[in-house]
Every structure is written in structure tokens, then in C-alpha cells.
Amino acid sequence: MASDTVFQSSIANHKSDISPARAFWALVLLSFERQWRVRQVGWAAAGLLALIVTAVAVETARPTRWGFADRPIRRGGMTYREYAAALRPAARYNALTDPIEEEKDFFTTRRPRAAEYPSPLDPTRDALKSLILSVPSVVLSTDRYGADWAFLNFTRLAVLGAYLSFVLPLFTLAYASGALGADREDRSMVWLLTRPVPRWAVYLAKFVGALPWCLLFSGGGFAAICLAGGAPGRTALGLYWPAALGGTVALAAVFHLFGALFRRPVVVGLVYVFFFEFLVAALPGSLKLLSLTFYARSLMYNEAAAAGYPVGMLAVNQPVSTATAWAVLAAAAAAVTGLGMWLFSRAEFRDDV
Amino acid sequence: MGVQTDSLLRYRPWRGTPRGPLWGAAAVARVAVRLLAGRRLFWGLAALGLMVFFFFFYAQYLFVWIKTFTDETVRFAGVPVAVADLSKFLGRVNLDGSVHTFGNYVWFQGYILVIVLALAGSVLVGNDFAHGSLPFYLSKPIARRHYLLGKVLAVGAVVNLFTTLPAVVLWVQAGLLFDWHTYYVDNFHLLVGILGYGLLLTVTLGLLTVATAVWVRRTVPMVMAWVGPFVLLRMIAEWVVDGLKYDPRWRLIDLWNDLYLCGLWCLGADPRTIRPPAQPDVWEAALVVAGVCGGCLLYLRRRVQAVEIVQ
Amino acid sequence: MGPPIPTEALLRTDSGRGSDSSLVTDDCSLKPLLLFEHASKWYGPVLALNQVTLELTGGITGLVGANGAGKSTLLRLATGQIAPTLGRVTVRGTDARDWRARRLVGYCPDADAFYEDLSGRRFVRVMARLCGYARREADRRTDAALDLVGMTGRADRPLRGYSKGMRQRVKLAQALLHDPELLVLDEPLSGIDPVGRQDLLGLFRQLAATGKCLLVSSHELEALEKLTDHVVVMARGRVAAVGTLQQIRDRLDDYPLSVRVEVDRPREVARRLLALPEVVGVEVDAAGLVVRAHHPKRFFAAFGRLTVEDGWEVRRLEPLDESAHAVLGYLLGGSGRT
């Protein structure tokens, strides 16, 4: 045991050195570091991301490259490009001379319809028919059309599908709910609550400390998916990253609140994601206005529309304007964080249950 | 107090004989189910499951009710709807006590079951590791495999509570809505099929849940490891098979779909009626399910033998 | 059920020792360091703390009671982790829930959950940083606090490998970091070996000698008796008695105690007991008898002697007053049971 003199000289009478602001930032740092310690979450996230990126990369590496020209119309059948080529005059005239093979595999070749047969006896009609039936082939060979289609297809499947309804909610959930959730699960909350720091500051500092991880994994996941997507992916990354990050921050605020309120925040969060962000966001009515991903979806839709893409195929129901979406996302994040700070100041945590 | 108390208090050894470790496993399961039943969150999820059940329950009733109409239209929430349209719609969603009623019911319940099992895994197994209650179980005269068996049984009970039991109720209800003595006799194979499907789910999901929980222990990674196969792999399977028109065997990576195929086989469904179309063969799905079970068993066996299980 | 021990007279007693005059420097210091005013705490339907009024000004105060008597609840109220359902808890006039109150309070929790992967030194340093000290100052305080609890040489290993005694010391070190006026220690001696216990007791005395106020809970009076004779006895969420051990003993001797005795020959037993000088009354009913007696320690000794001499078959012996029951348990040297 040390002597009295050590105690007197070193610890006593330094109250003026205490600064709540410094304590706040120290807690932010601690929160950030604690998340780093839970490696399993990182590995699980990386594993799931690797699966998605692989799937995206495979599609990018295929000759179709997110376009549809080289995609089979039906399983094992001819592609759209082959179909378009078959409609051109030369192919149609050649088809006339081909022997009719009744037994030829129905799926691999397509027999021309009656209306497609050339009609040399009526040249005007034949020329008109040739002109109309050549349109698909011409359209398919234009770069602009192929690129637009590829971009929208990538947006629909990879960005709105895999990213916005899986990667963003799940990764944000894992990191944001763990900020306070891990302390509850490990019963180490008492150390934070007995520091001379206001309760609301503890809540806020934990959030600020977890946010970089949410942004890193959600934003990083978005970047990885986009970069694996080739040319349409790069365009998507440039257009959509603000919406991705905005959605991440808003959802992180919600999940951080779950971490403060529930003993199993991830499970509650999953229910929320499944039934609110997943199902409700896709419903046509106005209930979807309550789901946060709907606003991120709207932002992306508006970005794509502003960039001149034909956004009809994105299947976003009645999107709100960009300004509204940003306002709602920011207001939701602020309101939820404020509510959390208020609730956390009043909360009592019992570690014996 | 220094008083001789030998007449007041005596040591009396317990005079029964233990009933063997398998009963111990049953006790572990019982305790585990009670533990889960004590959670409000569990009942919240059960309420969601009940919503799915009631949808099927009342829709079956609705189907019969619609068929009693001979008019052209019925007023449905104030809107006139052609009876033919309505019964065509209801026929398409198979709410008529047929094979697909029960298959669909279990399929839809899967979404909730995934979440329930993530909770069950972390509450029943993860907690024992994280909060040191494992030595409490292992100090009893049961082996580690009995402990794991108990937990698998508990998870199985939860699985059945969400799937088999309500499906049986739907079957009974269907019989009462139609002509009961012919329905029960003609469709007895459906009851057997439901029970078979339930058994399959119990074994597979029980093993998988316990194995995942032993592996990751904490709730957050557990949930992530859990939604991977059930949500992500399904998404990828649908994308690859329905979108890119690859070989239907790619659907085998979706475990819930594999279980569904095996379950429909138990129910005796015609493979051509299975939706979405382009499905792998039943034996392939069964092989995957068996592989998953085998993998879980091997993993658990290794963990049971490892010393570190009782840190 | 007899009337409770009249504790009101004892409640306001504070030891008077340790209230160092040098502490009284401003108005704030004139307010009691820790004050419970009719504080009650419900956990759902369970009443964990019932109308507690206490005032602490200095020195070492022991808090004894059986498990579940409400000790931890009281300490958690004092450290502002929970709010009283009714009543008030203040630290130098500031509500204990206010963060500024926690500057004056150091808390050593009962729970044994740390950030297990950190080393002891790193953990204490993190706690110092969370108090709001600059990096250099936090390092200095960490070293000083670890030195004070005798952990300097052993603080660099990960916490998960620590023994119970080392954990206790680390917990104590983090409570000392910001030089609090009030140290709240929840079961600091449980699970510590006798040598370590002596060390910790020495440390507590040393801290008290430097003018700190210590509130130490324990379910063993024996351990606290060596540290202080000023104790608060708790039973079923109530403060059963407050004062020095001698004061409580004296009061118990004056206070008639009701004991229910179930025995095979109640009438004969009643006759024999009435002959004892400590016994003031006996009521006999079908199942047994209720004895009212002064000087419980002497009464129980005589009762034991008579039981053995006459060969009574005593089926049940139970003091009827709960708080008296608990206080007695401790004073007679049991574990809360008579």
C-alpha cells in the first residue's frame, strides 16, 4: 500500500482539470474502439458483403454486363440480340428458304410468326414491315440505349435491391445497435453511467463513436458493390453516394435508439427492418412515408431522373422530391437522437436481470 | 447458541434414483423453453406469427363463404366484386385446405421464424456461454451432448409452435369448413405430411440454430450469420435463377427453399405445381438439407469434445 | 408482530468523526454530503427500498443486511444510477441523478464486468479520460490510483486473467481517480482472501483518515466491525437501525423482543420461561407460545440452557419483528438468521 503522501500529492485537489467536453470526446473514442474489438461482427459483415460482391462481379463479367441484349429471353433460349437479328430482312428472307424442321428444339430456335414472313409481292408493305422489324436491332446496337438499360438494371437489382434493402439496414443495425447494446450485453454500462458526464452526452457520444463504423461498412459496402458493377456501377456510385450515406445516418440513429431501449436491439431491429423497411416501404399507399429507406429510394430515383435516365422501370411508387427527402432524413435523425437522449437520461439499467 | 440440535435437524440423503441423462436433456429443454417464454420480445414475435396464422385461418373461411354465393357480385368492403374473380383469386393463393395451403403457411411463417430463432439461439445458448451458466448445467449428471440435445429440443419446440401446430389447426379447421368426415379421411395424408414437414424443420433448424449459437455466441454476429443463409442466399438464388435464367439447381443454396421442397414432398405435392417454377429435384434438396444437418452434427461433435466449451 | 424498533431517534445520528473542519470551506460543503429523504424505490411491483432517511457527513459508515435487503439499491441511488420513486437523494445539495453530483462520488460496483480485453492500467486510464482529464493528467492519476491500491506492478496484464482481489483493487482504483469526497463501495470485501481483506481494510482506514467519507456495504458485520462501529442495518428494504454498534446493542436490550416458540409442552415451557428475569410476558395458544423478553442475548442463552436441561422439543423459534430479527441476526453474530 502506498503512503499518505503519495495520495495527497497526486490525486487530491485537481477538480479544476475536469472538463465534460474532454470526457465527451474520450467517450466517443472509447465507443469507436469498442466496436473495433468486436471482430466477429466485422467478419460476418465482410463475409456477407463478399457474397454480394461476388454475385455482382459475376454478372459484370458475363457478356451481358447488366444489359439485356445478350440475355436469354427464356431459360436456355435465344438472346434478345439474336431475336432482333432474326427480325431483320436478311434473316427473314433466309428463313423462307430454310427447311421447316418441326422437331427442332422449340427453345433454342424461334420459328418466325406469320406476320414476320416477307411479302415480296407487295413491295411497299414489305419495305414498311422491314423498317418496323429492324427497329429492335437498331435500338439494341445503339450504345446509349444499352448503357441506360444496364444502368437502370444495375440500380434496380444491386442498388435498390441488394444494397438498400439488405446491406444498408443490416450493417447499420449491426454497428449502431451494438454501441449501447454491447455494453448492456456485457453489463459494463455501469462504468459509463457513474462518470461525471451527463447521461444525454453518454448517449450522444456513443452514437458519434459508432457512426464512423456504420458509414464505413455501409458506405464501403456500397462502394464495393458499385465498383464490382463495372461501368454502370461507377455511374451509380457517383450519383447515389449521398443518398446511401444519408440513409445510413438516419437508420443508425433509429438503431442506436433501439440499443438504448431494448435488451435485444438486433432482434427488434430485424423485425423493424423486415416489416417496416422491407414490406411497408414497398407498399403503394402512404404508409411507406414512415419508412426511412423510402426517402433514400426517392433520392436515388430523383438523381437518376435528373441525370436523364428513363426511370420508369425503377418501380419507385410516388417518390417525394429531393428536398423533402433530405429534410425528412435529417429531421428523423435529429428527432430520434433527441428522443434517445431524453429517454436515456431517464432510463435505469439493471444488470442483474 | 451452543445448543445441541441433533434432534432438530438431521441430514437425510435423497432416496430416489436419477432417471438417466436423457430425462436431464428433457429438463434442459423445459427450462430453455420457459426461459424464452419469459421474454416479452418472444411474445411480440409470436404475435406477429399469429397474424400470419389468422390471415390463413380467416382466408380459408372467406373462401368457403364466397363459394356459397350464387350472385354475380358480392359487396366486399363496400366495393362490388365479381364472385368469379374473387374465388379465382382465392383459388390461386391456395386457401382451400389443399397441399399448398399448408406449404405456403410454413413458407410465410419462415420470415418470422428466422428472427425467432436468432433470438432463441442467443438467449438459450449464447447466454450460457457469455454469462457463465454453462457450468451449472454441466455440473449435473448429464454429458455435454445431453445439454446440446436439450437445447436442440427446445429450439424444436419453438419451431413447432410457429409452424406445425398452427398448420395442424388449419387442417382441422379446413375439415370443419368442408365436409368433415370425407375431408379428414381423404386428406389424412396431409396431416401426416404436415407432421413430417414439422419433424424435418425441427431437426434441421434445431441443429443449425444450436450450432450457430455455439459458434458465434453474441447476438449481433449471430443475427448476421443467420440472415446470411436465409435472406441473402435466397435473394441471390432468385436473382440467379429467375433473373439471369441460370440452372434451377442454383436454388439449392436457399436452405428455406430446400426445406420447402422436402416438406412439399412430405405433403405429396405435384412438383409441377410448386411456385416459383424452375425448381431443383426433391432429392437434391434433401441432399443439401442432409448435408447441412451432417455439417452441424460434426461441428457440434467437435465442440463437445473440445475442452474449451467450459472456459 | 411487535412494533418496530424506534429508529427515529437514531436516524439523525452521524458519527461526528471524520467530518474534517478543513472541508467546510463554502456554503455547499455545509450541506450534508449524502442525504436520503424518505427515499423509496419500486422495481415494478417489488418495493426494494422503503422510506429511507439517512444523512452522511463523513467517516466510514457500514451498510449491513442480508442479500436482497436493499443495500445495492441504496448505493445505486446514492450514485445516481437510478432515481427514487418517491423522496429525494442529494449529494451536497445536488440531486444524485445530476452529473455534477457524480464528481463528488466514486463508485466501486458489485458487478464484476469489465472490458475484459483491456489491461488493468488501460481500463483505469480510460475511466480517467471519461472523467474529463487531459491525457497527461489522466496518466498521472491512473498511476497514482493504481499505486494507492497496490496494483502498480500488476496492472499491465489483461483484465480477464485477474483474480477476484485484483479486480476489486482495479475497481477501487477507478473509483478514486477523481478524488471524490464520497466513496461508495458495494461489497468490496466479498470473495477476497483474509490477507487481501486486511490490506483493503487498511486502505479504507487510510482513505477515511484523509477526510473521505466511505459508505461500505457488506453482508458480514464481522468484516465491517473491524473498520467502523458506525453501521446502518437494513432489512427488507427498510433501515432497521442506525448508530454505533454499542448504541444499537443498548437499545435492543431495552426493547422488548417478541419470539414465537412452538414446542411440545407449551404450558410447562411458559411457566419455566416466566421465571427468567429477562421475560416480561408470555401468551400461550394452541400451537405454542409468544414470549416477550428484554436483553435478547441473555434471553437466548437462558432459553438454550433450559431447552437442553428439560429436553423440550422445540419445533420453531422465530422472532416476530422483522427488523429486530435482522438486527439481532447481525448483533448475535449469525448470518442474518436467528
Descriptive report:
The complex is a heterotrimer of chains A (353), B (311) and C (338). Chain A has 353 residues and is an all-alpha fold. Chain A has helices at residues 4-10, 20-37, 39-61, 80-86, 89-97, 123-141, 143-186, 189-193, 199-228, 230-261, 265-279, 292-306, 322-346. The longest helix of chain A has 44 residues, at 143-186. Residues 1-14 of chain A have low confidence and may be disordered. By secondary structure, chain B is an all-alpha fold. Chain B has 12 helices and 2 strands. Chain B has helices at residues 21-37, 40-67, 83-92, 99-130, 134-138, 144-162, 164-177, 180-186, 188-216, 219-243, 255-267, 282-305, and strands at 73-76, 79-82. In chain B, a hairpin with a 2-residue loop joins strand 1 and strand 2. Chain B is globular. The mean pLDDT of chain B is 84. Chain C is an alpha/beta fold and 338 residues long. Chain C is built from 12 helices and 14 strands. In chain C, strands 6-7-8-3-9-10 form a 6-stranded mixed β-sheet, with helices on both faces. In chain C, strands 2-1-4-5 form a 4-stranded antiparallel β-sheet, covered by helices on one side. In chain C, strands 12-13-11-14 form a 4-stranded antiparallel β-sheet. In chain C, helix 4 crosses helix 5 (135-148), helix 4 runs parallel beside helix 6 (164-176) and helix 9 packs across helix 12. The interface between A and C is large, with 45 and 47 residues.
* Oligomer state of the chains in this structure: heterotrimer
Low-confidence stretches of chain B: none
Distinct helical segment count of chain B? 12
- Spatially, the strands of the biggest sheet of chain B line up as 1-2
Global structural class of chain B: mainly alpha
Please outline the major beta sheet of chain C. 6 strands, mixed
- The averaged pLDDT of chain B comes out at 84
Number of domains of chain B: 1
The most extensive interface, with participating residues per chain, is: A-C, 45 and 47 residues
Order of helices and strands of chain C: HHEEEHEEEHHHEHEHEEHEHEEHEH
- Give the strand line-up of the largest sheet of chain C: 6-7-8-3-9-10
**Major sheet of chain B: size, sense and barrel closure?**
2 strands, antiparallel
Rounded to an integer in angstroms, the radius of gyration calculated over CA atoms of chain B is: 24 Å
**Percent in helix of chain C:** 25-40%
Portion of residues within helices of chain B? over 70%
Number of helices in the DSSP assignment of chain C: 12
| Radius of gyration of chain C, whole Å | 23 Å
Give the distance, in angstroms, between the N- and C-terminal Cα atoms of chain B: 43 Å
Total strands of chain C: the figure is 14
